[in-house]
Each structure stands twice: as C-alpha cells, then as structure tokens.
Design a protein that fits this description.
By secondary structure, the protein is an alpha/beta fold. It has two domains: 114 residues, no CATH class; 91 residues, VSR Endonuclease (Endonuclease, Chain A, 3-Layer(aba) Sandwich). It has ten helices and seven strands. The strands form two sheets. It has a four-stranded mixed β-sheet with strand order 4-5-6-7, with helices on both faces. A three-stranded mixed β-sheet has the order 1-2-3. Helix 2 crosses helix 3, helix 3 packs antiparallel against helix 4 and helix 4 packs across helix 7. The protein is elongated and about 70 Å long. It starts with a helix and ends in an 8-residue tail after the last helix.
Length: 221
Amino acid sequence: MLVAAAKTGVVLTCITQAHRLGLWVLKDGSTHVAAPRHAGRIAVRAHVHWERPVVPREPSALEDPIENVLAIVARCQPREKALAIWNSALQTQKTTIEVLHGLPLATEARHLFAELTPFADSGLETIVVPRLRWLKLPLRRQIWLAGHRVDLLIGDRLVVQIDGGHHVGDQRSEDIAHDARLMLMGFHVIRIGYSQIVDDWPDVQDVIMRAVAQGLHRART
C-alpha cells in the first residue's frame, strides 16, 4: 500500500490508515487516500479525500498522522462508526483529549469530540450504548461486578456482555464462569457478539427490550 501511495502521489488516510494504526474499524472494502487540492486526476482505484488537513502534511509523507485520520473519518463515516474509531484512538493512546481539543476541527468532528468516551473498551461497546439510550434507563459501562468488569449494566441487574474476536479458549471459559457468578448474585446476563451487533441489531434490541419489559433490570425487592 505504501508503494502504491508513493507511485500515485497520495497519502493513506481515513479508515485505511486507522486500520493500519490498530484502531477498531468496520472496513468498507475500499482504500481511502488523501490528495492535495491542487492535484490533478489521481490514477488510483480508491476513495480520494481532498480536504485540507488539520495537521500540515510533509510533501513526501505516505501516511496521515492520527489527527488528520480522525478529522477525515468524522466527515467520511457514519456517526457511530466514526465515534467508535475516535474512542479507539483514545483507548489505545494514539492521541489524547487535550490534543484533540486544540485542533481546528470541523463541525462533524466537534460533534464527535463532545461524545467521546475514553473508557469504552471496544468499538462494539461504542456502537451499542448510544443505540440503547432511548430506553431512558441508567447505562453504566465498564463497572466491576463479581471480580471482573462488565461491558454494560442496564438499570440495577441487567448485564450486557459484548464479545469480540478474543473471546475464545481460556477467555471463553472465564467468561462462562463469570456469567455463572453474576447469575448467582441475582444479575441477568445477555451476551452478544460482533455479527449480531453489526448484522442483526434488531434481534439484539428485541431481546433487551423484552428483558426490560420483564423487569430483569430492576433490583430485587
């Protein structure tokens, strides 16, 4: 990718560079590059971004710095996907709130900045919680219960655990044991995975709605 960028005079950016930096990204199958506004026709099959960078690019650069990546992501990606990438940048310490606050960000990026949650554990969590705010119930992320963190606690007793690709083998066995301890303590556990959240959200939401309807989020009386 770097060789192709060098040959065509572009810079790797947006979700392509975010993925290369190890951020949580829902890829769209295309390569995203940036080019200067004065550039002519770009002979490359890619999504080309022409925006002025928030951090000036050195002429020979082939990869955008994180600040430019996030600024372009904010304009290019749907809000929840962009927010997941921004939170991932904080969680992986690729940038900080202080650095982002000092940038000349456009409107879309400013809106994302206002929603940042530095303690979100994964991109999936960043997507799930905003989708459930309409329930008007307490939504607490990453709190400790029974000796481990849980991804989301709805109300007092409904636990939602979000499984990424690392929940296999020993991790899976530990998750099952933790679920059992939670249930013995009176909590109700709903465990959901990547494909359910990304491809089958209506069914996930339906399960959570029915759990709330049964009062499984309420403390015992």
